[in-house]
Amino acid sequence: MTAGAARPRAAANAETVPDGTDPAAGTDAVLAGLRRHARQLVAELAGPVRRVRLRSGETVLEVEWHGGGAPAEAVVPQRPAPVEQFTAEPAEPAEPADHAMVRAPIVGTFYRSPEPGAAPFVAVGDLVRPGQVVGIVEAMKLMNEVAAERGGRVVAVLADDGQPVEYDQPLVALEPA
Amino acid sequence: MFEKVLIANRGEIALRVLRACRELGVRTAVVYSAADADSAAVRLSDEAVRIGPAPSRRSYLNAAAIVEAARQVGAQAVHPGYGFLSEDADFAEICAENGLTFIGPRPEVMAALGDKSSARALMSRAGLPLPAGSVEPVPTVDAAVEVAAGIGYPVIVKAAAGGGGRGMTVVWTPADLPRAYAKTRATAQKVFGDDRVYVERYLTDARHVEVQVLCDAHGNGVHLGTRDCSVQRRHQKLIEEAPAPALSAATLDTIAETALRGALAAGFTGAGTLEFLVDAKERFHFLEINCRIQVEHPVTEMITGVDLVHEQLHIAAGTPLRLRQEEIRLHGVAVECRVNVEDPERDFAPTPGRLERFVPPGGPFTRVDTHGYPGYLVGPHYDSLLAKVAVWAPDRELALNRLERALDEFDVAGPGVRTTIPFARRVLDDAEFRKARHHTGLVDRLLTTTAPAATPDPPVAARPSTTAERLTSD
Question: Does ipTM surpass 0.90 in this model?
């Protein structure tokens, strides 16, 4: 496999909000508006958001976030820092039950960004929507996008750029939205 | 010799290959699907790579995933086992393109021999006798009718891309031929992606006799005698023995030498098997050549003392054969029984489940090749072969007694789990089989007669369907 193999140009963090001009998409406009509000809300709120619930009929907007007490994000142990010397394989990070794990759809090499040198698809802290591409697994020169089935906030990226991964190996841990 | 081999298979054969590698100081890596995470080969292998979910198409048949795994672990060679991609010329080629040694023949040889029709033509040119019939594929139903009329019924319509007992239909009367022809072509297209078929004489009351050969990359080759695999149900072997019984020494030598000649003429390398049908007059006819290690290889190993998987590895590594034909001695008789997780009383329906008890037999000259263990979960995704019990003895009578003894010891139990052991015992008790006067019709005969009520269960009712119907249904 050549290092310079081209990868498809995938959007890094696309979150296009339709402007609702399509007259047939009344629903679209409503959803778009909801999403916009949600993003603003999340950006404004102090502390990590645990859950956002939106609704259109009879207008609901619900947000749940961790306040005071224990920090919400200290649940997934991070990989040991590279400066450490270890001869054993790093242990598989624990998978808390309330985290959604995005796993490798095939065996191959994991890439965090669409192209060498480009910004990664996601970083820790990003809010990911269902279907969003969070990485690529390459096998036999074929690039396979890895999409998050459910949305959520990225709490950890569990494989390094260029790391060989197995089928079903956990790649990105999400805290469900 | 290779430093590391990737084992691209599962179950008992993955374990078999792993053992050979261990003994030769070769590091092992095995691929596995999500359903096989707890398998014996995965537990024992130096490395294991999860390559896909349970379905074979996305795991054991997934060439890209397998080659990726080989690259990830840095293997130099890939052993494909049997089934799956072991006779896939495209896979062999992909391995070669990626710098991996495929343990088997070269892609072009595999392609020529995997196509049953071209293999027949090749072997015919090498002087091997074929059953009467079309050497080339039969393109139209009219041509099929003509060929069949010329050779006489019954005939068998076979997919050129088939093999291993699949993609074939026996036709007893001319009236049935058009439908059988169309059906076989359609099935072949669906299952193999290639609808070419050929028509040959169907030999009833024949024995299935095959020859094990070893050919290296330097033009040397030896044969390791014959095996008889006439005990088959729907073309799947149940009991195999070496050497083929009740044939004259001259016939055995001729079949074996002819087979070796054919393999060398085709440029075959590795461990291979040439299959023949032998009629009541000891005339033999070439059926097909298998370019992989076979399930029943243990019986040949037991009468020759040769480790066939070791030889595969040596040959693939480019070492010239150290075996000389005159050094190969066939000693005694070996008989093997396949133990499948199926219920013989429910038409051999698979009965997956967890093995709560699993105690295989042991004792003198008794060999068990199995990936089973107590607590193992037999899943529904793959074939039902759980274990092969093989025994050796100086003569056939004693070997059969020994095999019965071993099967009687084999304790396999679990909720809903059944095995084919009771049916195998019926075969071993059969008078014709004991006298080696049986042929490929044996299993059907046993299945159309009432099973003796030896178990506490109610006796099995006699099966009314005719032999012809069973053979012509897929």
Answer: no
